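Aim 2, interim progress: modelling of the zinc ion-bound target.
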Amino acid sequence: MTTPPVVPPHLLDRPVAGGLVVPWITPVTAGGVYLFGSLAAASQRQCLHEQRCQICGRPLPDEAVLFARRSDLRLRCTSEPATCPPCAAYSAQACPMLSGARSTYRTATHPALAGTPDDGQRHLRQGAPAERWHAVHVQEYDVIRHPRWPQTLAASWGRIPPVRIDAVPVTG
Ligand SMILES: [Zn+2]
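Predicted structure of the complex, ligand included:
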């Protein structure tokens, strides 16, 4: 386990677990356990529609970042809501999936999720090999139904071309 990155000033009001900032969108159980890597469906919709950053929860500035796997690039959309650029920079270092520190997705549902309804996201991730991530810089996105999982919303850059797409460096 590497040393967690320094928490940037704009995220100091967020809770921290295991040295990592808990994203605004991360669900928390009644017992106070943060379910990193899970998206709360209601929060996901709120982020997408209200153009909020999924990490700090604040309104997105003029340019935002959508993290995309190769499979997302093909479809030009992702179910992960956008982040503001400062949160994107922090996430690229702090998030074990983005930084490459974890090589595969969790193969089992988090025990705290047992008995909760499927949020429509889990089958997208479970047991799949981790992929390289890309940072898609956009000025706007459209909220669409995911072409493969219509019950899931996604942020799309199909209609509005992105400013640029960078590969996320593997630092983990
Ligand atoms: Zn942010």
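The chain has one domain: 15-109+131-167. The first strand starts at residue 16 and ends at 17.
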